[in-house]
Design the sequence.
């Protein structure tokens, strides 16, 4: 075991996706494009929802918050990565690393909980349509959003505080493009049993419970859809939740890949690629999924562009 060096640790080195210098321009262009697509796409979703009174409903309230979360989610990692590629400086300060890790966990958790709340919204809308406005009222929407924020801020703060008690070895290279909790703990020289227990407990709790809620909601939704006699009616009802189901599948599929690769004793670039799907590709595709599969959103975006054109 290497000598402990807790007090001397002032920075980490993010190795990124590749150390091949010839690939750096390609990676810079690719991730700049994905980041801009994510930010612009999600901003358009937010502006369309705000500007169109037809979309002032609980479902689109949660969708606008999901878009805002996705912008913040990608902004915790990609700008730093782009700067590292451009300057050829892969250093990140100890405080900067913990800050990035904290906000990454906050917005990843928010994505997860918002998708769960949106599944519940669709369940009530389809299975209990007559009571929808009574159950999913503005007060409940605000409380669910506030609760999601409080949960994510609290557990992320707890995880970050637990990292402060860890001492690190002289090896400070993180084989990743951002500071991820699992990768940081693998650099520790001190005992991380308490950190590992907390990490797996929180991951299980905030992974299994929301996923169970989503599966329950969609099992009831599918049961209601199957009870509809006409195929046109089935398609109309399913179209109201098809976009959300696609986003959920993408988010949890990518998240599962990250979870499986994070357990590898000797991390490799495969784990980083799985994180790209989870932290970059999924937030980038969400606006396209909602705009292409949702007629109301397409109409709202069309009206937004028309108003923008006439205002010039």
Sequence:
């Amino acid at each position: 075991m290497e000598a402990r060096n807790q007090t001397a640790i002032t920075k980490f080195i993010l190795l990124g996706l590749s150390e091949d210098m010839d690939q750096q321009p390609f990676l810079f262009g690719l991730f700049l494009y994905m980041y801009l697509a994510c930010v612009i796409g999600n901003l358009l979703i937010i502006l369309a929802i705000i500007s169109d009174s037809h979309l002032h409903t609980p479902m689109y309230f949660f969708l606008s918050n999901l878009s805002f979360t996705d912008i913040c989610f990608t902004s915790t990692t990609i700008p730093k990565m782009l700067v590292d590629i451009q300057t050829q400086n892969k250093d990140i300060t100890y405080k900067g690393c913990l800050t990035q890790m904290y906000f990454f966990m906050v917005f990843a958790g928010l994505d997860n909980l918002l998708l769960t709340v949106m599944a519940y919204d669709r369940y009530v809308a389809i299975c209990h349509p007559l009571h929808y406005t009574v159950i999913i009222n503005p007060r409940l929407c605000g409380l669910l959003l506030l609760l999601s924020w409080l949960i994510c801020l609290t557990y992320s703060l707890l995880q970050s505080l637990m990292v402060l008690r860890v001492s690190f070895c002289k090896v400070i290279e993180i084989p990743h493009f951002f500071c991820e909790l699992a990768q940081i703990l693998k650099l520790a020289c001190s005992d991380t049993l308490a950190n590992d227990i907390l990490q797996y407990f929180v991951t299980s709790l905030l992974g299994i419970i929301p996923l169970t809620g989503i599966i329950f909601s969609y099992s009831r939704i599918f049961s209601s859809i199957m009870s509809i006699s006409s195929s046109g009616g089935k398609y109309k009802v399913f179209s109201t939740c098809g976009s959300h189901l696609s986003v959920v599948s993408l988010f949890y599929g990518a998240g599962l890949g990250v979870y499986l690769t994070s357990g590898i004793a000797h991390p490799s670039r495969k784990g980083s690629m799985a994180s790209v799907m989870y932290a970059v590709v999924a937030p980038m595709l969400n606006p396209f999924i909602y705009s292409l599969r949702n007629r109301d959103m397409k109409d709202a975006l069309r009206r937004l562009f028309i108003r923008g054109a006439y205002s010039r």
